[in-house]
Specification:
Subcellular location: Endomembrane system
Transmembrane segments: 154-175, 181-202, 214-237
Strand content: under 5%
Protein name: Membrane protein
Radius of gyration: 25 Å
Shape: elongated
Number of helices: 9
Keywords: Membrane, Transmembrane, Transmembrane helix
Mean pLDDT: 89
Membrane topology: Multi-pass membrane protein
Length: 238
């Protein structure tokens, strides 16, 4: 059977400009690592299961809100900066169209396009103001002004995914278990699964992606557990 070339298929690339994947990944991973580390830290200090649930729940709520606000502010600020640069480029195109066309042609020549052809294409683009603006922004800033991420989508993705990730290590306690080891094991499993799922959007093998996230989360949990144990012991001696 003859395979259809990717260039002839309508959707052969993943959507990398929608603004949801990065905050979703960061949110889920941050939620998992944050609460695994929190639970390991306070658990290492010898507190009661009720205190662990209280701490984990507070971490979930505070972290989810913080992540959402951070993502919204970050994406909104980036979009506003791009909008300001687009407005600046629009003014330059209106005031100095010849110089801007030559600048565009020079960039293409630097990439290996014959000079005559580069000038011809730049002049053709110049006759279409909106297309010229889009082309200049893409070439000079490396962004498409018509495909900027949605700050609300980024914030919601981050909030929901952080909440889900942070909930995972709390599940054993919410169902009545009191074992710190079990909670950390469930959290570790969540990290591995999340890393494996994310690897589907990349060229990384699923087990490699899962193992990477598991090791990173384990490092954070070990660090906070040791600190919690040290503080707990010192508190007991005091």
């Amino acid at each position: 059977m003859t395979e259809t070339p990717a260039a002839l298929r309508e959707h052969h690339h993943a959507d990398v400009s929608g603004g949801w994947l990065r905050p979703a990944v960061f949110g889920a991973m941050d939620g998992l690592v944050t609460n695994i580390a929190l639970i390991a830290g306070v658990g290492g200090g010898g507190v009661s299961p009720h205190t662990i649930v209280l701490t984990g729940t507070a971490g979930l709520v505070a972290g989810a809100i913080s992540m959402a606000l951070g993502e919204y502010t970050s994406v909104r600020s980036a979009n506003e900066q791009i909008a300001a640069e687009v407005a600046k480029e629009r003014q330059e195109l209106e005031r100095h169209p010849e110089a801007e066309a030559r600048e565009l042609a020079d960039m293409w020549v630097a990439r290996g396009l014959p000079e005559d052809l580069a000038i011809q294409v730049a002049e053709a683009v110049r006759s279409q103001p909106e297309q010229a603006l889009r082309m200049h922004v893409q070439e000079e800033l490396g962004v498409n002004p018509d495909e900027q991420p949605d700050p609300w989508k980024a914030a919601l993705s981050s909030f929901l995914c952080f909440s889900v990730g942070a909930l995972v290590p709390l599940l054993p306690y919410l169902f009545g278990a009191t074992s710190l080891v079990l909670a950390l094991a469930i959290g570790g499993l969540g990290l591995f699964v999340a890393g494996a799922v994310v690897s589907r959007f990349t060229n990384r093998r699923w087990w490699s992606g899962g193992l990477r996230q598991l090791l990173l989360g384990a490092a954070a949990a070990v660090a906070t557990y040791l600190i919690g144990t040290l503080i707990g012991v010192q508190g007991g001696l005091g």
